[in-house]
Amino acid sequence: MGLSLARCQTSVIVTNHAAFNYLAYRYGLTSQAITGLSPEAEASPEQLAALSTLVKEQGIKYVFMEKLASPKLAETLAQEAGVQVGVLDPIEGLTTADIAAGKDYSSVQKENLAALQRALTCR
Fold this sequence. Notes:
The chain is of the alpha/beta class. Helix content is 41%, strand content 15%.
């Protein structure tokens, strides 16, 4: 994944909560979370305004939400900043139907990589 994210226009990802800090650190990205570790936490209007400004200033095109979390905060920030919502999958949400359809760790990570490449405008 590292080489595929090496030549991107931006290296900042915005997520609904701090679930992907490990991924950002591992691949040299900067992660800005709307809330802390809890996907159920609420953000203040000031936090949302500051992140909206960051998204606009950095040219960020997507706000990511975790597949298992409520999309409310990510959708609110994306709407405020005029960008799209993307999905990152932490893999623990694979359903029986997903597994039956052939999804596994590798396929989920490839989907995450494609989402990041699209969001970060990678070559």
